[in-house]
Amino acid sequence: MKSIQSFFKHKETYIGMGTALAFLVIFFCIWMTAYDGVMERTDNLRMGLVNEDKQLGTTIQEEITTQIPFEVKNYTSIEKAKKDLNRHELDMVVQIPRSFSEQLEGQGEANVIYFINQANATMSKQIMDGAAQAMTQSMNDYVNGYKQQQIVAALPQQFEAVIPSKELAQQLSKNMTEVFQSFNAQSVQASIEKTNNVDGFAATMVPLMIVLASFVGSMIMSMNLNIVALKLKNDDKKWALFIARQIINMGVALILAALTLVFLIVFQIEWTTNIWTVAMFQFFVYFAFLNLTQMFVVIFGTGGMLFNIIGLSLQLVTSGVIVPKVMLSDFYQAVGSYLPATYAVNGYYTVIFGGEQLSTDLIALLLASAVTLFVAWMRISFQKTTTQTSKMTV
Q: pLDDT by residue (tens digit) across 193-208?
């Protein structure tokens, strides 16, 4: 009992207990509000449609545009549509080939091609896989109905031409009509191409794992460096301490960038860019996280950890690694656009799966680092310099 009482004489005990409670409360509040109504916003998902067939494909294009529950953008070029898919501006591209009508009339079957970007949130890929199957079935229903109408319309004249008895011709036509109406062939086949595809489930978890590990590590490191800085404030000048912290941050970011490469190699996670680009990108990811977490503890001291916990939860739900960003509410989409994890996830999708260049994400991470470092610098500039007075003893 005495030991328990001793623990509660130190504020660190209360801070630790409060942190445990804060994690639970913050994660519940943010995750439940961020993911509330997600499935009701599937109409925010974006699909590109490229119709190269000017016959039956035009009608199918109109049917898809009016019935599909996504935002549909029509393209005249498959290259442009696939480029936007790589830029994460689309979640799927549907191509109706130029020979679609000819294949249906000549061979009785035709392919519709679906391009689904695998460098995307898991939920988005699953929804688009299901949508591709549903659209194919809908096209089959329409094509079969169209074929039946064409055949049934021609039957009476054909029978009357070869059968002398008009009544017998009409009866045969009626019987044949019933047969055709009961016929349900799969005339349209789905050809799904998974762009930027990588084998293995582990690779799909790399962006989430790196963001989670990097940010949590940054939180703990920033908190401990701040504690050390407070202990040394009477011995060193505030700017000397601040510069020393940035040097340590950059050194650790370099070490962790190299360590990330080692783990990617050890666990056979291939990347689509060169080794130096991957190392540089991870350096800026960790450096951005360190500057963000450092900013809060510099401004609020130990209480800044509360903001870091909020930042961790916000970044996990808004980064787009679990749920597509477009399926979140406008508030969480706006918040995510200001947080470095969004660009870390986008960048790692490019590194692991392929796609556009990393320049946009690198610039965003650099900007985030510069802003948070400037805010911390401003807070340090307002701190009073404390000097230690030495006493001489005789």
A: 887 777 666 777 888 8
Over residues 299-355, the pLDDT tens digits come to 998 889 889 999 999 999 999 888 888 889 999 999 999 999 999 999 988 888 877
Helix (H) or strand (E) holding 367: helix 359-381
- Residue 373 burial class via C-beta count within 10 angstroms: exposed 0-12, middle 13-18, buried 19 and up: buried
What CA–CA distance (Å, rounded) separates 394 from 390? Answer: 13
CB 288 within 8 A of CB 369: yes
Q: How is residue 147 annotated by DSSP?
A: H
Residue partners of 22: CB distance under 8 A and separation at least 6: 306, 309
Residue pair 307/296 in contact by the 8 Å Cβ criterion? yes
Segments of the chain assigned E as strands: 46-51, 71-75, 92-96, 110-117, 188-195
Residue type, position 19, single letter: T
Q: Which CATH class is domain 39-195?
A: alpha beta
d(CA 271, CA 285): 16
- Per domain, the residue ranges of the chain are 39-195, 201-381
In sequence order, what are the residues at sequence separation of 6 or more whose Cβ sits closer than 8 angstroms to the Cβ of residue 296?
222, 304, 305, 307, 308, 311
